[in-house]
C-alpha cells in the first residue's frame, strides 16, 4: 500500500489514497500501527482520500490513538495540497467533505508552485450544548475551574472539533503535558476536548501550544490556531485577524465580519513510501 507523509508546521500526517485500494481496510487499527513513531511510520494522524457525493472529495482523519476526528485544520491543508498536486481534484478552490461538514480549501501559489493553502473553517460555535460542555450556562467563556489546587479561566469553542483555551503568561511545556490531559478528559466535556495554551503577544500575535484530543502534544494544530484566535478576540485580548505562532512556524487566522474563520499556512510533502501493514 502506497502512502505519503505530509506536514503542516510539524503537525504530521500519513496520507492514503483509498481511490487506489480495492479492499476494505480497518482504518482505526491501521492508524494506531502506522502512526506509531517507534514501530510504524510515525505521525499525529492518518488522512484518507475518499470519493464524495456532496463535495469534490472526502477527507477522513484518524488520530494516532485510532479515534476518528471530525476535522483538522493542518490536515485539511495537507490534504488539499495532496489531492491537487496529484490531479485528483483539479480545482484551485475545492470543496472537501469532512465529518464536521463541507469545507472550502484554496490553493495559493508561489512562482507556479503550491506554497500555502487557505481553508474556510466555518463558523465558530460558542453554544455550550453544541460544543458540547455539560453546564447550565449558554456558553463557556472565561469560566473558572480548579485543577491541581490552582484556578484557571477557560473558554470553550467548537470549530470543527471541540477546543478549550487557557490563557497563560508564558508557554510552559510542562504545564501543557500535565494540565492538557486532565482538561481533555474532564467530566464536563462528554466528547473530550483539545486544549490550547495561549500567550497573547500583542493585538495581532499569539503563541499557542496544543494538547490534542487523541494525539497528545503536537507541534502545531490548525483548528487550535483558529479556536485560540477566536477566543482571544471574543475576550477582547486581540483583534479578529492574528498571526498564530507555533514551535515550527506560523499560521494566519482571519475571523471575518460574516463570522467565518479562515486558516492560511504552508503544507509540505515529507516523503513517499510503501507499507505492507494493513
From TrEMBL:
Q: Where in the cell is it found?
A: Cytoplasm
Which Enzyme Commission number(s) are on file for it? 5.1.1.7
Q: Where is the signal peptide?
A: none
Catalysed reactions, as listed in the record: (2S,6S)-2,6-diaminopimelate = meso-2,6-diaminopimelate
A Pfam match is DAP_epimerase
Named from the GO MF annotations, one term is: diaminopimelate epimerase activity
Query: What's a BP term from Gene Ontology annotated to this protein?
Result: lysine biosynthetic process via diaminopimelate
State where substrate binds. 11, 63, 73-74, 194, 212-213, 222-223
Q: Where are the catalytic residues?
A: 72, 72 (proton donor), 221 (proton acceptor)
Q: Which UniProt keywords apply?
A: Amino-acid biosynthesis, Cytoplasm, Isomerase, Lysine biosynthesis
The cellular component terms of Gene Ontology attached to this UniProt record, alphabetical and capped at eight, are: cytosol
Q: What is the annotated role of this protein in its UniProt record? A: Catalyzes the stereoinversion of LL-2,6-diaminopimelate (L,L-DAP) to meso-diaminopimelate (meso-DAP), a precursor of L-lysine and an essential component of the bacterial peptidoglycan.
The record ties this protein, via PANTHER family, to: DIAMINOPIMELATE EPIMERASE (PTHR31689:SF0), DIAMINOPIMELATE EPIMERASE, CHLOROPLASTIC (PTHR31689)
Subunit text: Homodimer.
Q: Name the chain's protein.
A: Diaminopimelate epimerase
Lineage start: Bacteria, Bacillati, Bacillota, Clostridia, Thermoanaerobacterales
Amino acid at each position: 500500500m502506497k502512502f505519503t507523509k505530509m506536514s503542516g508546521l510539524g503537525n504530521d500526517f500519513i496520507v492514503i489514497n483509498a481511490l487506489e485500494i480495492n479492499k476494505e481496510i480497518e482504518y482505526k487499527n491501521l492508524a494506531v500501527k502506522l502512526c506509531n513513531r517507534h514501530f510504524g511510520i510515525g505521525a499525529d494522524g492518518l488522512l484518507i482520500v475518499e470519493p464524495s457525493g456532496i463535495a469534490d472529495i472526502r477527507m477522513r482523519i484518524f488520530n494516532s490513538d485510532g479515534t476518528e476526528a471530525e476535522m483538522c485544520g493542518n490536515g485539511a491543508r495537507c490534504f488539499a495540497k495532496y489531492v491537487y498536486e496529484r490531479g485528483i481534484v483539479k480545482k484551485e478552490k475545492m470543496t472537501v467533505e469532512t465529518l464536521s461538514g463541507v469545507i472550502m480549501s484554496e490553493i495559493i501559489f508561489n512562482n507556479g508552485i503550491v506554497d500555502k493553502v487557505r481553508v474556510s473553517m466555518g463558523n465558530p460555535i460558542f453554544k455550550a450544548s453544541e460544543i458540547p460542555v455539560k453546564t447550565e450556562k449558554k456558553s463557556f467563556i472565561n469560566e473558572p475551574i480548579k485543577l491541581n489546587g490552582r484556578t484557571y479561566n477557560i473558554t470553550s469553542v467548537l470549530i470543527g472539533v471541540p477546543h478549550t483555551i487557557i490563557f497563560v503568561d508564558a508557554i510552559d511545556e510542562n504545564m501543557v503535558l500535565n494540565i492538557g490531559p486532565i482538561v481533555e478528559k474532564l467530566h464536563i466535556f462528554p466528547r473530550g476536548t483539545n486544549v490550547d495554551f495561549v500567550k497573547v503577544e500583542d493585538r495581532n500575535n499569539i503563541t499557542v501550544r496544543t494538547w490534542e484530543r487523541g494525539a497528545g502534544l503536537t507541534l502545531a494544530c490548525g483548528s487550535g490556531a483558529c479556536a485560540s484566535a477566536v477566543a482571544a478576540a471574543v475576550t477582547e485580548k486581540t483583534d479578529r485577524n492574528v498571526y498564530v505562532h507555533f514551535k515550527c512556524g506560523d499560521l494566519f487566522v482571519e475571523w471575518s465580519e460574516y463570522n467565518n474563520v479562515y486558516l492560511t499556512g504552508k503544507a509540505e510533502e515529507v516523503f513517499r513510501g510503501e507499507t505492507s501493514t494493513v
